[in-house]
Amino acid sequence: MVGGVMMRQAVMAAVILMGTAGVARADPLLGDWKTARQDDGTSGIVRVAPCGAALCGSLIRSFDASGKEVANPGNGMLILSETVARGGGDYRGKVYAPDRDMTYASRLELRGDSLRVSGCVMGICRDGGLWQRAN
User: What residues make up the domain containing 52?
Assistant: First the structure.
């Protein structure tokens, strides 16, 4: 009987894990996002994907101030991390700003195909601009 209880608990744990993985896959923040231009005019594409129980976003393409795609050793860099939904299209986590080499506590506001990005660190806040869905 003990083996049967343990088996049922294992099956329930697997069902719960599969259910939460499905929620992460269905999150509307997933996909590619074109960032707002940084102070120097450059921009990029950030791909948001599940990472553990949260969402993360890595820089996958980079563009110069004229909009031309350029090689960038920063491609692959983690821009969004520890990002979790708070409901109503609002997310909290961390955002890295490569142009300032700073990581901010982020606030993301998803509205359709637009993502308002902002963040604060030690009382210094920065507007990361409006990102647009790229896919």
Answer: 29-133
Whether 122 is in a domain gets the answer: yes
| CA-wise closest residue to 96 among 86, 112, 114, 81 | 81
Residue 3 lies in a domain: no
**How far is residue 37's CA from residue 127's CA, in Å, rounded to a whole number?**
11
Q: What is the number of domains present in the chain?
A: 1
The 10s digit of each residue's pLDDT in 27-72 is 999 999 999 999 889 999 999 999 999 999 999 999 999 999 999 9
Distance separating alpha carbons of residues 38 and 29, to the nearest angstrom: 21
Q: CA dihedral defined by 38, 46, 82, 9, rounded to 10 degrees? A: 170
The CATH number that applies at residue 42 is: 2.40.128.520
Distances (CA, A) of 131 to 2, 14, 22, 55, 61: 54, 36, 25, 16, 14
Measured CA to CA, the distance from residue 43 to residue 68 in angstroms comes to 10
The pTM of this model reads 0.80
Asked whether residue 33 is assigned to any structural domain, the reply reads yes
